[in-house]
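For this section, I looked closely at a protein sequence along with its fold in token form, which I now present.
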Amino acid sequence: MDREKEYKHAAIYARVSTNTQADKGTGIDLQLERCRNTCREKGYEIINEYIDDGVSGTKDIHKRKKFPELLKDAADGKFDVLVFFSFDRLARDLRVFLSIVDELRKINIKIVSCKEDIDTTTKNGDFMMNIYATIANLELETIKERLKLGREQKRKTRGYVGGRVPYGYKVINKEVFIDEEKAKIIRKVFTYASEGQMSLATLANIFNDERVPTPTGKGKWYPSTVSRILKNVDKYNGCIMNDNDNDICWPKILN
């Protein structure tokens, strides 16, 4: 394949984040100079330069200032090669990096990274890019696994991984504690429920007669209100086995 005849038109992408220290030594001017030199060496005509100044490398490409324009021009066939200084100028987040590679491949745009010296207009460069993307994907999966293990450990030690906790509990500094006033109502619900064949409607009427505050603090007790509390029996016993077989341990409300 005659690369210079096949790939003639290039676009340059440069980015710096708002964190100037992180980008020290790889400013916009340096990136552009290096990319322009690379284009001259390879015989590419520079069609446009897309500059994301003050944009984080972890930001989704469709939410950046210039990248959406870049993708549109690429899809319109205005250039066939994207040249950039280094992979971390393209993205600092592995998910974002892999999404960019995938987007460009879909519209048949080749990439040239000056620092890593990877040029996918060549067979060797395309092979190296595939290896790089595979390693990046493996690293991403490793990160996901570490996060999963961290969440599991958090469940076992503190019991809270986000979201709403059942009535009777409260969250303070990302730890689950018993809300003692509400816990009294929970215990009363289960005490009444354990005293014979009492229907949910009867229980609701008893709480209304006793003027027991509802979980929301408003309105009346209904059979469905009682039912929701009774369905949380495992939670109120302090330990839940979820679908992934991870113990979620909370303080016990029920004895």
